[in-house]
Design a protein that fits this description.
The chain has 121 residues and is an all-alpha fold. It has 2 domains: 22-75, no CATH class; 78-121. It is built from 5 helices and no strands. It has helices spanning 6-12, 23-39, 46-75, 79-98, 102-119. The N and C termini lie far apart (87 Å).
């Protein structure tokens, strides 16, 4: 056994938190600095930035949800192959209905050009 008594161990465990500011003081400093910085922002211009940030956030969340769904589908061995076959069937059916005659092809081309004019031009 050792000759050290429990009383002497208490002396070696000194309080190390006294060396710096407490957590609440640091939090108060941080909040005051954040309020000071946010007070300098021109909030009338935040509408367009807020929309852009919102769109980016929605895209990120949508990508995460899609990844989770795709990973779940890929977990089942036969399901990805069936979904690929379903996609081929749907594309083939749409092509048969919309691309078989020149009138239908021209109508599809006009729709695409109208959408392009509406959103791009």
């Amino acid at each position: 056994m050792s000759d050290v008594t429990p009383e002497s161990n208490q002396d070696s465990n000194t309080d190390t938190t006294a060396s710096g500011p407490s957590i609440s003081e640091r939090a108060n400093d941080f909040l005051s600095q954040a309020n000071e910085i946010l007070g300098k922002v021109d909030w009338t211009q935040m509408g367009k930035y807020g929309k852009a940030a919102g769109i980016i956030a929605v895209v990120i969340v949508a990508q995460i949800v899609i990844k989770v769904v795709v990973d779940t589908v890929n977990f089942f061995p036969i399901l990805p192959g069936l979904l690929e076959l379903l996609g081929i069937i749907v594309v083939g059916q749409w092509s048969w209905q919309n691309l078989t005659t020149s009138e239908k092809r021209n109508a599809v081309l006009e729709k695409v050009q109208n959408i392009r004019k509406e959103y791009i031009d």
